[in-house]
Amino acid sequence: LQMACGDGDSSGTPAASTPLVFTTGQAASLVIGQTSMTANTSNVSSTTMNVPGRVAVSSGGAVSVSERNNSRVIVFNAVPTANGATADSVIGHAAFTDPSTGTSSTTLSNPNDVANYGGQVFIADWGNHRVTINNSTATNAVAAVAIGQTTRRSRPPQPWWRPALGVLLRHWPLMFAAMAGLGLLLAFGQV
What we know:
Layout: E1 52-57, E2 63-67, E3 72-76, E4 89-91, E5 111-117, E6 120-125, E7 130-134, E8 143-147, E9 164-168, E10 174-179, E11 184-189
Antiparallel strand pairs: 1-2, 2-3, 3-4, 5-6, 6-7, 7-8, 9-10, 10-11
């Protein structure tokens, strides 16, 4: 699981003047996706996760988590403050209990990364060889754009597009997408 910090700019990068202080062996404050620090259940619900990948924190404090094995991104409208917190919405499914994959504009297939910028959610949709851009974090939200495909519903992928490993928005208005197996990083936007 990757760590994200929300005290900086909209990419989740901490402000340079805000040092992060951690110590070796420091205990976690809480656990998200399990009911306790000792629980270890992989499941599909609004309170559990199955192979969480990346975390993004929006400038408004919403926390988005990509989940590869449940083919979804779950969203907490605020940083959780207790173990086993309930997610507020799910992107990629109509319900929290559906782990299936899909190729439509409302489904995902093994999302590998997530980033937030200006109210939008960018998802590296590994299994569908695309990066989706959602203008909403509502459950079952329709992707507004699917980069790497000719339509928001198409598959197989464009011949030059491979599974999306990650998406980075730190240098907006550029979006970078890392491609598996090609040894390249694609840049989209104004250079």
